[in-house]
Amino acid sequence: MSSQHARVWQTEEQQRQVQQPKVVRKKVKVQKRWVTRGEKIMYIIFAVVFLSISAYIVSFSSSVDQLNRNIESLNTQIDQQKVHNQNLAYKQKELSQPDRIIKTAKKNGLEVKNTQVKQATELTD
Q1: Which SS3 state, helix, strand or coil, does residue 40 take?
Q2: 78-107 per-position pLDDT tens digit
Q3: What is the DSSP string of 74-91?
């Protein structure tokens, strides 16, 4: 009976195999991403911040450069005005010399009675 049981069991086993289709399990390959979505978002935010800061720095340095050029042009104008003022002060001293005043007075027919002509001094308040 044991051989008969073995044959029955064997036929039953074959029938089970025929009735049950083989389940084919596919291995799902999990793709490992080199950079995750969160990291991509962080990199994009970092790049945008970096580019905006760079643009601000370039804009700021451009405005500082423009201000420096304006300051230089004002300094040259100030220097030119100083030279002009010095020339005028020299002409004033030259024109206010007592000898010149006496000479111009005699030329125009004026007489100097008390020949005490003094250098004009500046008034200080």
Answers
A1: helix
A2: 999 999 999 999 999 888 887 888 888 888
A3: HHHHHHHHHHHHHHHHHH
